[in-house]
Design goal:
- The chain has a two-stranded antiparallel sheet with strand order 1-2.
- By secondary structure, the protein is mostly helical.
- It is built from 73 helices and two strands.
- It is flat, with a radius of gyration of 54 Å.
């Protein structure tokens, strides 16, 4: 790491400081010091030599100090070794100087030498001979166990360093040294240790020798003369396998020796090799304790080395050992073989057959661990192509057999430890499955091993769970072969040859793959794999299918890409493929065999599985395609007489006969009729007595008739329906409902369910026949049956599915002809609604269930029943072409939609949402206004389900009218209604209202409002609030055409006497908009005369004034708001409403109204501001003025700036300040000025934008109110700015301000003078001279207006004079000006006289200029100003020097004064006379003729 100069200086200073601390005797902190030094040294590239030498000294000293703590000595040694990177020779010299011949060295000196040899091999080798010679003289001196261990460590490190040099001497930067001399010394040291120390060594010392053993023996093996001795020491090492603490180090040393033996190509003696095999295997297969992981890994590495050097002998050893029944040994050997195979050792490939045979030896082992190990080994062998074509198949077969073994083993559980056995078997199954998933069938040799025998696993049921990887293997094999066919001249096509195994027939493959394909619709990969396999197997199934499947199977697979599809649709597609395939094959014998194969699979799947249900239908479809009538006849008879072979006999026989009837209706009905006549159905209605009976019951037969009708050809069905099907079903039902020939109220649920199912399917079949002329004569009778079933169900529970199923039946029956009357429809619907909606809450219903499964079933029935009722209502409503009839049917839900019980409301709304979906077509004149008013407020109901259903229904109403809304946005809002936060609900409901309200037909708005008003009187508080919001939103959107009606409707909301807190922002902004938009308008009276009158009797007018109507409503709202603390009394009192309703004073009224807002309710006020913000960009000029006036007042409130983001408001107000309408400009400029009070920081931030807009207002000379507002705004803003902030605009502001000193409007004059005074501190250096000149020009105005008719202006002039005279250097005039502070003002003549006397002494030029500036004031409209101007002129003339008197324009002055002698005001006349006399006198004094 390279350091900068500054860093280096800092670092050296740090080391010097540290060295100073090391010199102290205190050893407490030395541990930390040395740790710090180690880090610094190792991370520094360059160290000062002096520092290095000092560090070497201190580190060496402390390392050798026996009084130091051992930890400190070790750290000192580390520092010393680290310093070698900076000065190796000095460090080595220091250590060697303390390592002397025939002297027992310090322990840490030896360790330092060892570490130097390890860390700096290249530099250490030249010193190694000297070190070893010295060490040789020391061994016999070592008696302490620790010292002996230290020498062993040193020998270990020295041996490693020399070993590295011996094998890599070319990489060292100096001429080759004689390594034999070094190894000679190592040999002598090692022999001494082994002969003298090893026999009597303690466990700790033995560990040190063991660690030294591997590196030393490895080094000695490079010398032929030492090999015998070195290998002779290996048995000693093997004998040290005694303790887990030492075993790892023994194995580690052994690994080093074996590695060296391979490096030097040394063959170990056979006896030694066997001893090594045995000892290493014990380390891996240690029992009863498991081996230490590190030791096991090292031992495994040793075996890998042995597999490289002696693979044949190692396999013989494994073969011998694996024949024992020892589980641990077998598992260990299999694991080692797996590692060896995975290492891909080339020499091991010559022994593939040996490995396979070793595996086969243990295939019969029932141990779970052994079986798992075998499977993992087979997996690796497959990956690395260690499977031989002739011998490999049993290994693959073993994988499948282990998968299937689970099923066989668990079918006969052992009584004891069953769960443990189950867990172990499951682990084998998972392993075998994982092997199959990772199997690459294209690895060299694998195709020949697998094909075609792999097909034998497709059909057996026990391999079902393994089909996914199995299909993948088969598909890869076939596709690879297909690729070869197209790319190679010679094909190596996969051929089905039976060989030694029996392969499945084409019919078996087709039957199995079709059935397994069924779960593909649920996303199961096994199913997708099956259909994918079918795609590439047509030639194997039947040659005639090639072309058909080439077209049909890609179409079949397309819906599965990336998503699940409907199970029913997928089933239909598969059955259609089966039909087309059988028609294409057109082989009766082939079809008969397929039928038999379908039957053979009956026991392979559970009765409730999708596969089993499909299997029945596929079998029925196959029979339907069979052209052998006798065979079909015999099969039907077989199924009828022995249905138990199908599993679930009712489902099985029903599906088979139903699908068979598609092409063989006559055969099915004939055989079925014969079967009925032959069977004796005595007492079958009590079939519970015959549980386990293997024949069909009457209820089974009823269900079969329904299925036959459903699948029968429609043209044949209708002609045989009444006599051969319906009559039979009714007959059977009647029989089952009789006991001893007498009819009874039969409560048999199975009977009712079977009868209902049969009737439903018959209804569907008749509907699908689409025969418009067919009249179903049994329709009313069957509907009555269904209604009776529903009536019999209890109103306090929902344990049976009768309601649900009967509703389905009624729905389909209702569509058939003859058409039911409206009253019939209403009766049916009302009966069903009254049997479902009043049920107790769902949780209460579920509480009847005793188990979780019971509760889930009840919930399932509840959801299905409600869904079906919704579909029934939807069907009956929208099949009707009369809009009024539709409304009548919907009205059946009204009382439930507003029920006081929220669970009843919830059900009603869920049904409504089902009815008002977007996939229906309503009659053209269907009205939605009333329904919208009924449903929309419930978007804020108490339950999220009601809120979402209400929103869904509201949106659905517009789709019914063909109005397409913002679907994605509305869906997002609808999801948000799940929130329990009432404010969130209200906000979302408001947003929905804003989106949809503009689409309500105009002619239906009144109906909507009427419904909303009814809701205000009857709904809960939150829904009531929603009513108000929806009303307001709709009225805002479409109120332009209904302005008087809007005011009437809104008055209804307020006059209810309920709180307006929640609705106040919306109501306020609506009414203020109405007041603004109706200013000056006249229109007819409100048509809602039947409702409350907005205005009292005495207030009625001959010509209605809608603005006054709106104002009265707003007044009512404000009164209520004051009661609720949302507003305060206006500073205008009742005059506010007069101001508000007059076009000329409207903006004044709005400002007063804004000031009456309760700003402490900042949340409410910010809502109002947010809703009113759009007014500033409205197309209505009146409304823009209203908004600007309102905001202009509120912008001075800091609390609103604090809690609201008003930046956009500031921008809009700035834009309005440039509007052509003067009133709008005035209000906008006022708002900008008020920002100085509300948000001073915004003024600084947006000063340029604001100054430009306000200064522009000073040029609006036609409207002084704009000018005055601009002057006031500038005054407020400039108080917050510095001279730098306004420097660019200073000159323009000054010049424009001066133009208004003489304005006729007092307010303008006063504000201009105030502003001029405020400009004085902002001159800065740049504008100081300019401002002084402007003061000279303005001085006459300030002096004269001291006696302005408006006293406030006089005071302002006095103040501005006090500020301005310093700019002229006239501070001496302060004394005169102070007289103006007296309670009684001096007379003008006296003041001017004194002022001019002082001024004459100070500046005659300024005094002289005053007389020229006074001429314009002689014609002032104010008498007092004319008089003051003359008196000032008199004083000026009197105090001018002779020089300046000569400069007077005597003729003009004389003429003007003489004219003023005729002024109507006597005061002016007298002043003029006196001034004229003064002029004459002064002229005489200076000898100037007049």
């Amino acid at each position: 790491m390279t350091l900068s100069t500054e860093e280096s200086i800092e670092m050296f200073g740090d080391i010097n400081l540290t060295l100073g601390m090391l010199n102290k005797e205190d050893i407490v902190n030395k541990e930390d010091i040395y740790s710090h030094l180690t880090s610094v040294i190792q991370n520094t590239d360059i160290l000062d030599d002096a520092i290095v030498q000092r560090l070497i000294y201190y580190a060496s000293k402390d390392m050798r100090d026996n009084n130091m703590l051992r930890e400190i000595r070790m750290l000192a040694g580390e520092v010393l070794v680290s310093l070698a990177a900076h000065d190796f020779n000095s460090v080595m010299y220091e250590v060697q100087s303390n390592f002397r011949i025939l002297e027992l060295p310090n322990e840490f000196v030896v360790l330092a030498l060892a570490e130097l040899a390890t860390s700096y091999v290249s530099q250490s080798i030249p010193f190694m001979m000297m070190t070893l010679l010295t060490m040789q003289t020391m061994l016999r001196l070592a008696e302490d166990e620790r010292m002996k261990g230290t020498f062993c460590i040193a020998l270990e490190k020295f041996s490693k360093a020399i070993y590295k040099y011996v094998n890599h001497w070319r990489d060292f930067p100096y001429p080759r040294l004689d390594a034999n001399r070094l190894s000679d010394k190592i040999f002598m040291l090692f022999r001494y240790i082994m002969e003298k120390w090893a026999p009597l060594a303690s466990p700790m010392q033995t560990l040190s020798i063991v660690k030294d053993h591997g590196p030393t023996v490895s080094l000695l093996l490079h010398r032929e003369d030492f090999r015998g001795y070195a290998l002779g020491q290996v048995p000693w090492l093997l004998n040290q396998y005694k303790d887990k603490e030492i075993d790892f180090h023994v194995t580690q040393s052994l690994k080093q020796i074996l590695t060296a033996a391979v490096l030097y190509d040394i063959g170990l003696p056979r006896s030694l090799r066997r001893s090594i095999f045995i000892n290493l295997l014990q380390q891996i297969c240690r029992a009863p304790e498991p081996p230490v992981k590190e030791n096991e890994m090292e031992a495994s590495s040793c075996f890998l080395i042995l597999a490289h050097s002696n693979p044949g002998e190692l396999m013989e050893f494994f073969d011998e050992q694996v024949r024992s029944n020892n589980e641990a040994i077998r598992v260990g050997i299999l694991t080692l073989l797996r590692l060896a195979v995975n290492a891909d050792e080339p020499r091991l490939r010559d022994h593939i057959i040996s490995i396979e045979r070793t595996v086969k030896i243990v295939m019969g082992d029932l141990s779970t661990k052994v079986r798992n190990s075998v499977l993992l080994l087979i997996q690796t062998m497959c990956e690395k192509s260690y499977i031989e074509a002739r011998e490999g198949w049993p290994l693959i077969d073993y994988v499948f057999s282990q998968f299937a073994t689970l099923n066989r083993n668990l079918e006969k559980p052992v009584k004891t430890n069953f769960h443990e056995n189950e867990k172990e078997e499951e682990s084998v199954r998972e392993t075998s499955l994982e092997v199959l998933k990772t199997l690459d069938p294209l690895v060299i040799g694998m195709p020949q091993v697998l094909w075609p025998r792999i097909l034998t696993f497709v059909v057996p049921a026990e391999y079902t769970e393994a089909l996914e990887p199995l299909f993948s293997i088969i598909r890869i094999l076939i596709m690879a072969e297909e690729k070869k066919k197209h790319s190679a001249k010679e094909s190596t096509a996969l051929v089905i040859s039976t060989g030694a195994v029996k392969l499945p027939s084409p019919q078996q493959l087709l039957a199995r793959l079709l059935v397994i394909s069924m779960p593909a619709s649920l996303g199961e990969l096994r199913g997708a794999g099956a259909i994918g396999l079918l795609k590439i197997l047509p030639e194997i199934i039947h040659p005639k299918l090639v072309d058909l499947w080439k077209t049909r199977l890609p179409e079949l697979l397309q819906p599965l890409e990336g998503k699940n599809i409907s199970t029913v649709l997928w089933e239909t597609m598969l059955l259609q493929l089966l039909k087309e395939s059988l028609w294409k094959i057109s082989d009766v014998a082939w079809t008969i065999q397929l039928t038999q194969d379908f039957k053979q699979q009956m026991g392979s799947y559970s009765n409730n599985s999708t596969e089993k249900k499909f299997l029945w239908k596929a079998l029925g479809t196959t029979l339907a395609c069979c052209q052998d009538s006798d065979f079909v006849n015999s099969q039907i008879k077989e199924f009828l007489t022995a249905p138990n072979q199908l599993g679930d006999q009712r489902q099985g026989i029903t599906s088979i006969l139903g699908y068979c009837a598609e092409n063989h209706l006559d055969i099915v009905l004939k055989v079925f009729k014969t079967f009925q006549n032959q069977e004796k159905f005595f007492m079958n209605q009590c079939k519970s007595l015959f549980s386990g009976k293997k024949s069909l019951t009457k209820t089974d037969v009823m269900v079969i008739y329904g299925a036959v009708a459903l699948h029968a050809p429609k043209k044949q069905l209708l002609s045989r329906l009444n006599q051969d099907i319906i009559s039979q079903v009714l007959f059977l039902h009647g029989q089952c409902s009789q006991v001893l020939g007498m009819s009874v109220m039969n409560k048999d649920m199975d009977l009712q369910m079977s009868f209902t199912r049969s009737i439903t399917e018959i209804g569907i079949a008749v509907q699908d026949a689409e025969d418009q002329g067919f009249q179903f004569s049994y329709k009313e009778m069957l509907i009555v049956y269904m209604l009776d079933f529903i009536r019999d169900e209890p109103l306090d529970s929902l344990a049976s599915p009768i309601r649900w199923k009967a509703l389905i039946a009624i729905r389909y029956l209702s569509k058939l002809k003859p058409q039911l009357s409206l009253q019939d429809h209403l009766n049916i619907l009302e009966e069903n609604i009254r049997r479902l909606l009043p049920l107790p809450p769902l949780e209460n219903l579920k509480s009847e269930g005793q188990t979780d499964k019971d509760k889930e079933h009840i919930q399932f029935l509840y959801e299905r029943s409600m869904d079906t009722l919704g579909k029934l209502l939807k069907t009956m409503m929208w099949d009707n072409v009369n809009a009024e009839d539709c409304q009548e049917m919907f009205n059946l839900l009204r009382m439930w939609l507003v029920s006081q019980k929220e669970w009843e409301r919830e059900r009603a709304f869920q049904i409504t949402a089902k009815v008002l979906t977007n996939d229906i077509e309503a009659p053209g004149n269907f009205k939605i206004g009333s329904l919208l008013g009924l449903l929309a407020p419930h978007s804020c109901d108490t339950l999220p389900t009601i809120r979402q259903a209400a929103a869904s229904s509201t949106i659905g109403l517009f789709y019914i009218k063909g109005i397409h809304l913002e679907v994605e946005r509305l869906q997002g809002l609808q999801e948000g209604l799940e929130s329990d936060d009432v404010q969130v609900q209200i906000k979302i409901s408001s947003k929905i209202a804003k989106i949809v309200s503009k689409f309500i037909p105009n002619e239906e708005i009144l109906m909507f409002l009427e419904e909303m008003l009814d809701g205000l009187e009857s709904l809960n508080p939150t829904c009531t609030k929603a009513c108000g919001i929806w009303m307001i939103t709709v009225l805002k959107q479409q109120g332009a055409d209904l302005e008087d009606q809007v005011a009437c409707a809104t008055y209804e909301v307020i006059s209810m006497g309920t709180s307006v807190t929640g609705l106040y922002p919306e109501l306020f902004t609506l009414l203020l908009k109405l007041v603004s938009c109706t200013l000056g308008q006249k229109m007819p009276t409100c048509p809602w005369s039947h409702r409350r009158h907005v205005m009292q009797q005495g207030e009625q007018q001959q010509i209605p004034d809608p603005c006054r109507l709106s104002t009265a409503t707003l007044k009512c709202l404000q009164a209520q708001a004051m009661r609720e603390g949302l507003a305060k009394e206006s500073d205008e009192g009742d005059n506010l409403w007069t101001l508000l309703s007059s076009p000329s004073t409207h903006h004044i009224g709005v400002c007063s109204l804004a000031r009456s807002m309760a700003v402490w309710q900042h949340g409410v006020i910010l809502d109002i501001m947010e809703q009113l913000l759009s007014s500033l960009t409205s197309s209505s000029e009146n409304y823009r003025i209203t908004g600007a006036a309102f905001f202009s007042e509120l912008m001075k409130e800091p609390i609103l700036w604090k809690h609201g983001n008003l930046r956009n408001l500031l921008i809009l107000m700035d834009q309005s300040a440039w509007d052509s309408n003067a009133t709008l400009r005035q209000m906008a400029i006022r708002g900008l000025g008020n920002t100085a009070s509300g948000a001073p920081h915004k003024v600084k931030k947006h000063k340029q934008l604001m100054l430009e807009s306000i200064i522009r207002g000073l040029y609006h000379l036609a409207r002084t109110e704009v000018v005055c507002e601009s002057l006031k705004a500038l005054k407020k803003i400039l108080e917050l700015l510095t001279d730098r902030d306004v420097s660019f605009y200073f000159k323009e502001i000054v010049l424009q301000t001066r133009t208004f000193f003489e304005d006729e409007q007092d307010d303008v004059r006063l504000t201009a003078i105030f502003l001029f005074e405020d400009l004085a501190p902002l001159t800065g250096r740049r504008w100081k001279i300019f401002f002084a000149e402007e003061i000279k020009k303005s001085l006459i105005s300030f002096l004269l207006h001291l006696w302005d008719p408006n006293p406030k202006i006089g005071v302002a002039c006095r103040d501005v004079l006090m500020v301005c005279i310093p700019f002229l250097g006239l501070q001496d005039l302060y004394g005169v000006l102070d007289r103006l502070l007296d309670q009684d003002l001096p007379r003008a003549r006296d003041f001017y006289s004194q002022f001019c006397v002082k001024l004459a002494k100070k500046n005659q030029e300024i005094l002289w200029i005053r007389h020229t500036h006074s001429f314009t004031f002689f014609t002032s409209t104010w008498e007092v100003i004319r008089s003051a101007a003359v008196k000032l002129t008199d004083a000026v003339v009197l105090n001018l020097t002779s020089q300046y008197v000569e400069l007077l324009d005597r003729d003009q002055l004389t003429t003007r004064l003489q004219a003023l002698r005729q002024d109507p005001c006597i005061s002016v006349q007298r002043a003029a006379e006196a001034a004229l006399q003064t002029l004459l006198r002064r002229c005489k004094e200076t000898s100037i003729p007049l």
